[in-house]
Amino acid sequence: MKKLSRSFSLSLVAAGLLASGTVSAESLAIINATLHTSSDQGVLEGASIVMNDGKITAINPSDFKVDKVIDAQGQIVTPGFIASVNQLGLVEVGAVAGSRDAGEDKAGIDFDASLAFNPRSSLIPYARKGGITRDLITPYGGDSIFAGLASVVDLSGSFESVDKKQAALVVHLGERSKGSRAFTLQTLIKKLDEHQTKASKDAKKDDAKPSAEDTVMAKVLKGDIPLLISVSRASDIVELIKVKQQFGVNIVLNGAQDAVVVKDRIAKAGIPVIISAMDNLPGSFDSLHASLNNAGILEKAGVKVLLTVGGDASHNVYQLRYDAGNAVSYGMSQQGALKAMTSNVADVFGINAGSLEVGKAADVVMWSNDPFELSSHVNKMFINGVEVSTESRQDKLRERYTTESNMPRAYTK
User: Fold this and answer.
1) Exposure of 258 by Cβ count < 10 A (0-12 exposed, 13-18 middle, 19+ buried)?
2) pLDDT digits (tens, 9 = 90+) for 131-149
3) pTM across the whole model
4) How far, in Å, CA of 292 to CA of 300, rounded?
5) Of 272, 367, 382, whose CA–CA distance to 325 is shortest?
6) Do strands 162-172 and 68-71 pair parallel, antiparallel, or not at all (unpaired)?
7) What pLDDT digit, counting tens, does each position of 285-298 carry?
8) Within a domain: residue 406?
9) Any idea what the CATH number is for the domain that residue 312 is in?
10) E strands, 297-347, in order
């Protein structure tokens, strides 16, 4: 594509304080970039993107005034990636109980783990190195099948990082170490039926005061909050499709290693699927169809696919782009893999980010090369239009132990 010429004029804007006491982000433009928009615009070469007041304000404008211009010199620019289904900021060291805040034995429908989110966790800068700018954090719950509420956070490090509470109600179904999977599915159906009936009765009472659980379940039944359900076996997925049809709720499948068996039913029902592209061996009798090909197979079947990092996701969110690259090598389209960690996640959980479009949050990442390549790295990252660092604890440790110093090699003071 022929590069477009642009006339650029700069204006100096005095830095002032907002009513909140924070300094407003400077307006800026990235020019001569290869924009992978993760939208209907596709890939734009020799393009420009303008950011102001935390939002994307223009794509390829004929003229603009900004505080700062960055010449990308053809480098790839993508939306910031959105991770999902992990406890980033809710856990620091998995083996240290005092640093784990994502679960509670008594947790239920209204459990809000985001109250414990730590935006200064050492895991967050490391995640940013992988191009991650936002995340759907999820509780792992307790004794109930209802683990609690998922939340959307940005990775800016700000103490106002929790962008959206009640982004989903997390539910765990499927195999049980004790008892029957039938009981857990029955529990879900009864809870939905109970609150559907209750909502109908309470609508006739002017003085009815809903509980926290009532409020959450009312939003679930209206379709405002999706049910994020961890499930793997195909027969369980078929039953959940029936639940969606019966109650009209929005369902998102998580794990779903057997989803390929019933992919056409899932696509027809319009149910998104969150999977790890690296699930290649059965972890149980529920996941006999785990395969590296699954992301590509589901995409081709018309299923909206979201990619997550399997295993210890909280400490390995960084590798999401590598997993996406593997999905591409096993049959997923490159743009499909990009959408699976950007715009698809945003669409499913109502996040105003995930694509390079006017009005979206200015979460923008400039790459040294193809982000799916192992050797590529983040050159610049902006969250809400503000440039953030990708220096992590690991970088500081490397510098400490590879730099000559007058201090002893293992000094403690």
Assistant:
1) buried
2) 999 999 999 988 999 999 9
3) 0.90
4) 14
5) 367
6) unpaired
7) 999 999 999 999 99
8) no
9) 3.20.20.140
10) 305-308
What are the residues whose beta carbons fall under 8 Å from the beta carbon of 125, sequence distance 6 or more? 157, 389, 390, 391, 392, 393
Evaluate whether residue 412 is within a structural domain.
no
User: What's the pLDDT score for residue 24?
Assistant: 57
The answer to whether residue 155 sits within a structural domain is yes
Count Cβ atoms below 10 Å from residue 182 Cβ, excluding itself.
Answer: 11
Listed range (24-28, 70-74, 102-106, 240-244) with the worst mean pLDDT: 24-28
Question: What is the model's pLDDT at position 3?
Answer: 35
pLDDT tens digits for range 65-102: 999 999 999 999 999 999 999 999 999 998 898 999 99
**Tokens describing residue 306:** 């979201």
**Segment 332-346 mean pLDDT:** 98
Please give the Cα distance from 60 to 240 (Å, whole number): 44
CB atoms within 10 A of CB 23: 11
Distance CA 138, CA 136 (A): 6
- Say whether pLDDT at 382 is over 90: yes
d(CA 387, CA 37) in angstroms, rounded, equals: 19
Number of domains in the chain: 1
CA distance 382 to 75: 15
Q: Do the domain assignments include residue 106?
A: yes
**Residue 105 gets which letter from DSSP?**
T
Task: Give the residue numbers spanning the domain of 169.
Answer: 81-352
Alpha-carbon span 252 to 230, nearest angstrom: 9
User: What is the DSSP secondary-structure string of 123-179?
Assistant: HHHHHHTTTEEEEEE---BSSSSEEEEEEEEESS--TT-EEEEEEEEEEE-S--SSS
pLDDT on residue 412? 57
Mean pLDDT of 189-218: 86
The pair of structure tokens assigned to 396 is: 């500081």
Strands (E), 216-351: 227-231, 251-255, 273-276, 305-308
